[in-house]
Amino acid sequence: MFENLQDKLDRAFKVLKGQGSITEINVAETMKEIRKALLDADVNYKTAKSFTDEVKEKALGANVLTSVSPGQLLTKIMNDELASLMGGQATELDLKNNPTIILIAGLNGAGKTTFTGKLALHLKGKGKKPILVAGDVYRPAAVDQLQVLGEQVGVPVYANKESKDPVAIALEGIAEGKKNNNNVIIIDTAGRLSIDEALMAEISEVKAQTKPHEILFVVDAMTGQDAVNTAKIFNDRLDFTGVVLTKLDGDTRGGAALSIKSVVDKPIKFIGTGEKMEALDVFYPDRMASRILGMGDVVSLVERAQQQFDEKEAAELQKKIRKNKFDFNDFYNQIQQIKKMGNMKDLMGMIPGVGKMMKNVDIDDDAFKGVESIIQSMTPYEKENPDVIQQSRRVRIAKGSGNKVEDVTKLLKQFEDMRKVMKQFSNPAAAAKMMRNMPKMPQR
Predict the structure, then answer these.
(1) In terms of pTM, does the model score above 0.70?
(2) CATH 1.10.260.30 fits domain 309-436
């Protein structure tokens, strides 16, 4: 999902790679690439332009912490703005009425009937007692399909195969639901292959007669801007309460997800992520933003870094790294700050590209414990001057820390290698390799 958009956004962020600060020039170049990526993903042009203008303005007004690169900061801003673009926060269904009537609308092929079954299962899992109403009287086997789905999820289905009046069937279904104490009544309606006045008049009449509390517009996410245009036409007539994006497990460019909220000003409430009845998720704009970026956990990493790292300390540390004066005191302090940020493997997984590399690498929660014991057994002079730690000192440090001499030697070698690549630590492959080579220390 969104792989092409992810790749293009990643290339856009590379414009800032290695840059020491955010400037008008490098941000403008990055925004140009991001706008192109959004347009290629079939995002509405006005939406793409407005979005990149907003990101640019916030990026130029932001202060870059020395512990966070400009590229990472822009990722954070992008994540926030993408989430805002798609609604900001999750929007729940209004289920306070008993019964709550939910009308499902959309075009043929969007996955309305399948979504109806998924929604019934979702609400059943929340303790609700739903009933489905088969209101599609045109599509062959539509009623049979809904009955099969109802049986799969253990939810009753009201159907009247003798009638061709969708309004009458909907009202009969509501009466049936009330009689059986169903507290949610979900009405599946007919679709068309394209929008026409007969469809709109019919669905408008169903709405007028049933007075639904929720009207959910189901749209195929793979149709891009066509989905957005269709949503606008339906919304003008129905004033629906929310959108459902289906087929997000397919080759989705992302245009519908990114544009629909800004065009119709209605929240996306659910997303379909597969064919199984369980493959339905509540839509969380912030999580979708992270998935679209393909590096969403960096947002958490940046926020944690902002919380744990002092700007002045970071500046001094960078000076020491540049002069190759980074010592074991600095290393130990960095370990303590990293430990405050959370589980080590989780942190590594937040770095773009490292998550997959670290998938099969086992990192214990106490991964630093052996390293800490070795550093703590060093004298102040040794911590400040790692190069003086020769064999006799290694033997003493090993005994004092409860480790083997080989462990001390490995740590010294690793530390020296790390000093050489500190400037390149943002490289995911280098970071993953470093973690794989970390010696496993016995616990004290």
Answers:
(1) no
(2) yes
Nearest-angstrom CA–CA distance, 206 and 185: 14
Residue 243, classed as helix, strand or coil, is strand
Q: Where are the domains of the chain?
A: 3-89, 100-282, 309-436
292, 6 Cβ separation under 8 angstroms: yes
Q: What is the CATH number of domain 3-89?
A: 1.20.120.140
395 phi and psi, to 5 degrees? -65, -45
Fold of 100-282: Rossmann fold (3.40.50)
Q: How far apart are CA 311 and CA 66, in angstroms?
A: 6
Predicted confidence pLDDT, tens digits, the chain (444 residues)? 555 676 667 667 666 665 556 677 777 888 888 888 888 777 778 888 888 888 888 877 665 555 456 667 777 788 788 888 888 888 889 899 999 999 999 888 888 999 999 999 999 988 999 999 999 888 888 899 999 999 999 999 999 988 889 999 999 999 999 999 999 999 999 876 667 788 888 889 999 999 999 999 998 877 767 778 888 888 888 899 999 988 876 555 667 777 788 888 889 999 887 777 877 888 888 877 776 776 544 544 565 566 556 667 767 777 777 677 788 888 888 777 777 665 565 455 445 555 445 445 555 656 678 889 999 999 999 999 998 999 999 999 999 999 999 999 999 988 888 777 765 554 455 555 655 565 554 444
